[in-house]
Amino acid sequence: MTDKELKLKSVFLRRNLLKYIYKAKAGHTGGSLSCVDTLNVLYNRVLNVDPADFKNPDRDRYIQSKGHCVEALFVTMADRGFFPESDLETLCQYQSHYIGHPTKKVNGVEQNTGALGHGLPICVGEAIAAKLDNKTHRIFTLLGDGELPEGSNWEAFLSAAHYKLDNLYAILDYNKQQITGDNAEVMNTDSVREKLEAFGWAVKEVDGHNLEELEAALNNGPLEIGKPSFIIAHTIKGKGVSYMERNLKWHHGVPTPEQYELALSELNEAEALI
Amino acid sequence: MELDKIKEKDLKMGKANQEVFSETMQALAKTDKNIIAVTSDSRGSGKLVPFGQKYPNQIVEVGIAEQNLVGVAAGLASAGKKTFAVSPACFLSARALEQIKNDVCYSDNPVTLVGISSGVSYGALGTTHHSLHDYAVLRAINNIIIVAPADNFETEQAVRLAAESDKPVYMRYGKKAMPFLNEDNKTFEFGKGRVVREGDDIAIIATGETVYPAWLAAKMLEDKHGIKATVVSMHTIKPLDVNLLKELAANGKPIITVEEHMVNGGLGEACASYLFQNGYKNTFKIVGIPDEYTVTGSQVEIFNHYGISQDGLYNICKNLLDI
């Protein structure tokens, strides 16, 4: 896949996640739009995973801690071939496996997540196990900034540094907004970089909508040997749809038919410019 | 009567169950490098110091951080490790409950959660350190086996079975030395109660460290009145051995349950729920800690206070039998 095709893929994934949120009449729209570029890069440029051999013990692991933004994950995984995209027609419907959070019933999902502050501790266990077994695969997790105050994250930050887990990569989808308001008002997450560095992590800040920057940060080995890597991806909640950007209404808003058409036309325009 | 002062002719005395846990872990680790203990600054109270010295690559310390303890254990189990997360039962089952629910049970990661110093083992340290809620909260969670072994034999078997279990297990035990309750009945299987004394007049269904006073009360009933009580170590609270319950209830005689747990939501309520819904009309009595701030004292003093003792259970049985 060329760099241009990867960029086109991001637009395609945005269009798709909106499509299935619109159909399901449910979903975490703003956060999915902010993290979908990261997922695109992970699944198409970074993760060593094979949909046809998903249980391969040497595969890279990806555990989505911000489980509520499952729509971004599902459309990316469907596109990558883990399951037919048509399965997503059942999103959030009675008896569907494609519910509003990641579950292992979906091919390729590593762990059930959704409650916040759970992804990173599990990744620490996975990373310790890989070290014990002298395996070289990597473990990735995506954290939301709204879930940072969960104490379990900080317990895990300590232990990842303590065990020098340089096979572990945590990516922060730093859109700086959560359901109630700005992080700064709800619970201040300023100085994330300094906090994580003080905890013993190697930290890199990137533009979370710049695919090249994301790929470079995630794909060139650990940021520092002997330290877990923390990638702060600066993003925009609702990215790609003008009226959704930085608008809290779209934390889990569902577009009306008119809004949906407007979003698609904006994405089409963006696509044409790539 | 002091629980740990028994006559040698009655029962052979064993060790504290946590010693047996540690020895069994060492025996397993000798041949299996996938056996991993995860501890939260609890290797001392969990008797895992020798394990950690012998197998330094098979012990993971997370510090006093129970949520992380269970999350990390889930990750290790997901990567194929036979993982034992060891922590005082009070913190493990309360502070990390969401991790137990989601990371272990819901995600189907077969961690063994080992609740040490359970029930009122920390006696005088008070409510913060008592685990009298753990059966109740974990019974309400899908996909977990809940076990309270009563003696050294059951503990060793439980650890060995848990290491091979493809389902999550919660195991809890206390700090005191335990006698061997029935040297003749050496069968152990999760979900099957173990009869440690046989009789037809009354059934005493006990679990964990309450099986011993139940056994002593049964002996007293027999010695003083010729009354024969069946005593069951219902070591698995979930799944409950309903077949054994049916057998015990079939003769219509009284049944009492005994547990080191609050009466709300524990073994007794589990048994009552089954029996009542299936039409049994036996006289039924739940003995446990009532819904109140627990009296302080040693484990034995607390047991005595609430009738979870040889004399207390003897008197309860006598009243039920009207003798």
TrEMBL record, chain A:
InterPro entries: THDP-binding, Transketolase_N. It comes from the Bacteria. Its cofactor is thiamine diphosphate. Belongs to the transketolase family. The lineage of its organism: Bacteria, Pseudomonadati, Bacteroidota, Flavobacteriia, Flavobacteriales. This is Transketolase. SUPFAM superfamilies: Thiamin diphosphate-binding fold (THDP-binding). Residues 19-255 form the Transketolase N-terminal domain. Keywords: Thiamine pyrophosphate.
From TrEMBL, chain B:
Residues 15-180 form the Transketolase-like pyrimidine-binding domain. Its cofactor is Mg(2+). It is an enzyme of class 2 (transferase). Keywords: Isoprene biosynthesis, Magnesium, Metal-binding, Thiamine biosynthesis, Thiamine pyrophosphate, Transferase. InterPro entries: Dxylulose-5-P_synthase, THDP-binding, Transketo_C/PFOR_II, Transketolase-like_Pyr-bd, Transketolase_C. Transmembrane segments: none annotated. Pfam families: Transket_pyr, Transketolase_C. Pathway: Metabolic intermediate biosynthesis; 1-deoxy-D-xylulose 5-phosphate biosynthesis; 1-deoxy-D-xylulose 5-phosphate from D-glyceraldehyde 3-phosphate and pyruvate: step 1/1. It comes from the Bacteria. Its EC number is 2.2.1.7. Belongs to the transketolase family. DXPS subfamily. Homodimer. This is 1-deoxy-D-xylulose-5-phosphate synthase. It comes from Thalassobellus suaedae.
